[in-house]
Design goal:
Length: 357
């Protein structure tokens, strides 16, 4: 049976125990900063693991036990860091990539917490769906308030903000509000809501916007919806204060089934929509706002997310049903390799950090 993202997130929060605040122990000799893919896996009977892959050679460096798995870690901006930030039920955590242990944790009182780093790496913003709030958390490990909530912005009651995405300049962020069929805009500094925009349903059933990603060029916001087999909305955000819909993709247009997320190439030229049920990627030409084609993934691979390396020539997709990460060459949009990682990989983030040898 197809599981919702909320159900999957709930699977990942168990087994924190004493590991939550355990001291960070360096189990390896650490090298100079390097290019790393941190792949978060639900794991098997032994629990979650974090697999580290060299982003250039695609060699697996280590697979480490970890107290939690992050389904959608903060994967954009501020790559030069040691922590993988993400949400689990009740908390936002920063996992040390070299050890797999939790370095920082903030209590959100929300079962669903979606995160994004500010481009300068100083803060993590969280859409706390269960409390209808957006939170700003200190992400600077050297700060005296590291891991603490430093600002809070109230959403409207019942908004259920299910995702959050941020402009490349860090000025504004956007939430996909599943509970109200809206998209909302928040100023980041100081943190406050500035506008909420209703989405056109085009029928009587709710659209249920569940995920959203802003282009690095700041021109478009792509929003995944959960109604029926899922859909994709495109909003013009060239004026962040006045978003408006300009395009809508459905299966008849070539969209895959149950789109779970999307990622833009670093130059903003393409959007790759990750389709969970049809196990493929929909490639959108972001200049023309046209579907260019689909990239087939193995049957049963159940992809949910992906990430680019900064040069934009490879897209990495965890395949939870195949215990691998697919490597997709761009702009050819061909799968060139599968990397064996820990069991049930569900999240991935690119970092430039010291890696274990």
């Amino acid at each position: 049976m197809h599981k919702s993202r909320r159900q999957l997130l709930q699977w990942t929060g168990g087994g924190l125990g004493a590991a939550m605040f355990a001291p960070l122990r360096m189990a390896f000799a650490i090298s100079e900063p390097d290019r790393v893919l941190a792949v978060s896996c639900l794991g098997g009977n032994a629990g979650p693991v974090l697999t580290l892959v060299h982003a250039e050679t695609l060699q697996v460096l280590a697979t480490l036990p970890s107290p939690v798995a992050l389904v959608h870690p903060a994967s954009r901006w501020a790559f030069g860091r040691d922590l993988v930030w993400g949400g689990i039920p009740g908390r936002v955590v920063g996992i040390n990539a070299a050890t797999g242990t939790i370095g920082f944790a903030a209590d959100t009182r929300s079962n669903l917490n979606q995160t994004e780093l500010t481009p300068d790496g100083r803060f993590v913003l969280c859409a706390a769906a269960g409390t209808d709030k957006v939170l700003k958390i200190d992400a600077d490990p050297d700060s005296p308030t590291a891991g603490r909530i430093v600002e809070t912005a109230d959403h409207y009651p019942g908004a259920n903000p299910s995702d959050l995405t941020m402009l490349a300049d860090g000025s504004y962020c956007f939430t996909a509000d599943r509970g109200g069929d809206t998209v909302s805009v928040f100023q980041v500094d100081p943190l406050r809501k500035v506008v909420t925009v209703p989405l056109e349903r085009g029928g009587t059933r709710a659209l249920e916007p569940i995920m959203a990603t802003v282009s690095p060029r700041g021109d478009y916001l792509f929003v995944e919806t959960a109604r029926g087999s899922g859909g994709e909305l495109v909003l013009d955000i060239s004026n962040p204060m006045r978003p408006f819909e300009v395009k809508r993709f459905e299966q008849v247009d070539g969209l895959g089934t149950n789109p779970a997320s999307n990622e833009f190439s670093p130059d903003g030229r393409f959007s790759l929509i990750v389709n969970r049920s049809s196990a493929d990627l929909t490639v959108v030409d972001a200049d023309l706002l046209q579907i260019r084609g689909r990239v087939a993934l193995p049957d049963g691979s159940a992809p949910m997310t992906g990430t680019f390396a900064p040069e934009g020539t490879r897209f990495f997709v965890p395949l939870s049903g195949r215990d691998t990460v697919a490597v997709v060459n761009v702009p050819e949009f061909e799968v060139t390799q599968f990397i064996a990682v820990g069991p049930k990989p569900v999240g991935i983030a690119y970092l430039e950090t010291a890696i274990p040898r």
